[in-house]
Amino acid sequence: MNAVKLLEPEDRVRYDYLRLVFEEEFEETYLQFLISNILCYELLNLLPLCASLFDEFGFPEHEDSRLLGYAIIGTIAEYLEGEK
Questions:
Q1: Distance CA 58, CA 52 (A)
Q2: Taking 80 as the threshold, does the pLDDT of residue 83 lie above it?
Q3: pTM
Q4: Of the candidates 15, 18, 4, which has an alpha carbon nearest to the alpha carbon of residue 72?
Q5: E strand segments, the chain
Q6: How far apart (Å, rounded) are the C-alpha atoms in residues 80 and 83?
């Protein structure tokens, strides 16, 4: 079963945003995770780490906020550093 389908609608939108940012900003790692079939797992791990940022920046109403994007990129980068 696809775990993403079990997410609440709000979390699905956040998941899709994380996936987009991850693909655009961390393309090599994104492709490695996709090929290894762990991309969904890693994105699900990132959701709770980014929850306060989404709340703070009023996502999805302010989805185009550059500051939100930068904060999410920083959180993903920290997460990936912890994975090494």
A1: 10
A2: no
A3: 0.90
A4: 18
A5: none
A6: 5
Residues in the chain: 84
Q: What letter would DSSP give residue 7?
A: S
Ramachandran angles phi, psi of 63, nearest 5°:
-60, -30
User: What pLDDT digit, counting tens, does each position of 11-64 carry?
Assistant: 999 999 999 999 999 999 999 999 999 999 999 999 999 999 999 999 998 888
Give the CA-trace dihedral at 77, 51, 37, 32, to 10 degrees: -20
**CA distances in angstroms from 40 to 45, 52, 61, listed in the order given:** 9, 20, 24
Q: Using an 8 Å Cβ cutoff, are 61 and 10 in contact?
A: no
Closest to 51 (Cα-Cα) out of 13, 24, 84, 6 = 13
Domain extent for 8? 3-83
- What is the total count of domains within the chain? 1
